[in-house]
């Protein structure tokens, strides 16, 4: 009986691998496009209104400043495949919300085209053979998920309404259907996989969500709530309770999103603040050029309307006034008289005759557990044009009159970020996101294997072929072993 036992162990070893899901990212705005800073801040204000409703059940207005001078900007989105047969949807990556939702074919007042250079798609549950509507008796409908208001229709269908701070919103119903993704099985092998997930099908949109200039097919929430895709998949053991991203900040943009842990020896970790719906960290101090700023640490304390959030759905960064003013003063004092300070439409800017990396200091954001985040000048400055033979660079942090410090894409780019939900912590390290990354495939707390993941599609195609050959080779070896044992 030795041969059948070993054969079974071999197959069990294959089945016990926990998937690590990989999602390639693209920029939502084309790199050759230019937008006003005021437009960008307005988009962030909408995002923050949605965030703050989850904190205090209402709207907290942020005082936003910015420049209308055009500059290059990127927001990140990914493609997801849903339904049977699968259809592809472009959805914004958002670590500040929980729900994955896409636009339904029956949506009213929804955009028909997008100015982002993408083709919009509509989800039709009647055209998917695997789609199932979520009934009112389903636990999803009876649970109270943050930012959602669930209700039952006359047809016993579980519906939802998301209302945003500026009056815009979306409503629709919940669907359970197949989500398709690439799964790493170990030793650089990737295979197609799928899982049943619950997501929203939007039948109505209003406000900013109806504008074609920034229209997408939906939003992919990676928050901490039970209904986020990462929570759904990890609760069933399909993926580990960790996800990571590396957002490329220059060149052609893009990057990579991994439902799993990216490994990098320089990653430092800081604990998440407990009992918060968002990814709150404990910011303790800020240093400019190695010198700590005189900031009362209490301004960073987490409360109903304060704290520090990591949010990929926000493009800029937002700093409370008590920290913003000394931060800008320290930067200005350090670079004078090498540059010419100037105010552009209320925003602190500088006319720089040479490279900012040669003049501007590094900045350190210091978090709990001794974890520091080092910001290069490009991580807190935005290039805003040319004047009198010099380049104008403006502070990319916006001042908040009380409220929440938000670390958006300007800070998150060109870094590996690991959201380790199993250990309730976030880690980061500076990284060239055009390079491949090492991914850990784990089951619970036990290390199984490592794989290397590249953003190159040609590499993924090669790995698909390798996994096919590897399975064939393994089966041949097992059959030869069984034949030998029974001779």
Structure description:
By secondary structure, this protein is of the alpha+beta class. Helices cover 20% and strands 39% of the residues. It has 8 helices and 33 strands. The strands form 6 sheets. It has a 15-stranded mixed β-sheet that branches. Helix 1 (2-15) packs antiparallel against helix 8.
**Percent in strands:** 35-45%
Shape: globular
Structural class: alpha+beta
Radius of gyration: 24 Å
Q: Residue ranges: pLDDT <50 for 5 or more in a row?
A: 1-19, 49-74, 443-474, 479-486
Secondary structure tally: strands: 33
Give the overall pLDDT as a whole number: 76
Q: Number of helical runs?
A: 8
End-to-end distance: 13 Å
Helix content: 10-25%
- Sheet with most strands: 15 strands, mixed
Looking at this protein, list some descriptive labels.
487 residues, alpha+beta, 15-stranded mixed beta sheet, 5-stranded mixed beta sheet, disordered N terminus
Question: Mind sketching the topology for me?
Answer:
Blueprint: H1 2-15, E1 20-27, E2 35-36, H2 37-56, E3 70-71, E4 76-82, E5 87-94, E6 100-108, E7 132-133, H3 139-142, E8 149-152, E9 158-163, E10 169-186, E11 189-206, E12 218-221, H4 229-235, E13 242-247, E14 255-259, E15 261-263, E16 268-271, E17 280-281, E18 283-288, E19 291-292, E20 307-310, E21 317-320, H5 321-335, E22 340-344, E23 347-352, H6 356-359, E24 363-367, E25 372-375, E26 381-387, E27 390-395, E28 397-400, E29 404-407, H7 409-412, E30 415-420, E31 425-430, E32 437-443, E33 446-453, H8 457-485
Parallel strand pairs: 5-12, 6-11, 20-29, 21-28
Antiparallel strand pairs: 1-4, 1-10, 1-14, 2-3, 4-5, 4-10, 6-12, 7-10, 8-9, 9-10, 10-11, 13-14, 13-30, 15-32, 16-31, 17-20, 18-19, 18-24, 21-29, 22-23, 23-27, 24-25, 26-27, 30-31, 32-33
Helix pairs in contact: 1-8
